[in-house]
C-alpha cells in the first residue's frame, strides 16, 4: 500500500476508535505589512505574501485573497483526487484544475450595492489523465465532488462570525454575514 493510502486509512481507523478526533481546527494568522501587502502565517511554514495587482493598489508581490480562494478550490480538488484514488485503488497519471473566478469591481468599490463584493461565479475544469475506465473515473469524480472541503465550503452556507478589537477593546462594528 502507498504511504498516502496508509496515512489516510490510519486516520480513518483512529476516528472510528475515537470519534472526537474527527473534529479539527485549522488556523491562519494574517497581518497587514504595508500598502495592501499582507503576510499569512499557517502552522510553522514561512509567511505567505498576499498582495494585490497594481490596478488594485498593490505591488503584485503575491496572490490576492480572491486568487487564494481559486487556488484553494483547485488544489483541494487535486488533493482529494489523489487521496480517494489511492484508497479506491485507482491509478491516476495526472490531475490538474483550472479555476476561473468572476468578480465585478463595482461591488468591491461600493459603487453599486446590488453587486456583491466577492465572486459572482466560479468555474473549474478538471483534467484527469488515467488509463482507468470511464466508469471508475466517474465513480471517483462523484466521491471527490461530494467530499471536497473547499468546494463544500463555497457552495454551502457557512456561519462566519468576527470580532473587531480597537486598542484591545471590542467594538460593535461587525456586520453579520
Please write out the topology:
Layout: H1 3-17, E1 29-34, E2 37-41, E3 48-50, H2 65-88, E4 94-103, H3 105-108, E5 119-129, H4 134-147, H5 149-155, E6 164-166, E7 169-171
Antiparallel strand pairs: 1-2, 2-3, 4-5, 6-7
Helix pairs in contact: 1-2, 2-4
Structural features, described:
- It is a single chain.
- This protein has 177 residues and is of the alpha+beta class.
- Helices cover 36% and strands 23% of the residues.
- Strand 1 and strand 2 form a beta hairpin.
The top level CATH class name of the largest domain: Alpha Beta
Q: Provide the structure class.
A: alpha+beta
- Main beta sheet: 3 strands, antiparallel
How many domains? The number is 2
CATH-level-2 architecture of the largest domain = 2-Layer Sandwich
Output the number of helix runs: 5
Helix content: 25-40%
Radius of gyration: 20 Å
- Strand share of the residues? 15-25%
The CATH homologous superfamily of the largest domain is termed K homology (KH) domain
SSE pattern: HEEEHEHEHHEE
Major β-sheet strand ordering = 1-2-3
List the uncertain runs: none
CATH topology heading of the largest domain: GMP Synthetase, Chain A, domain 3
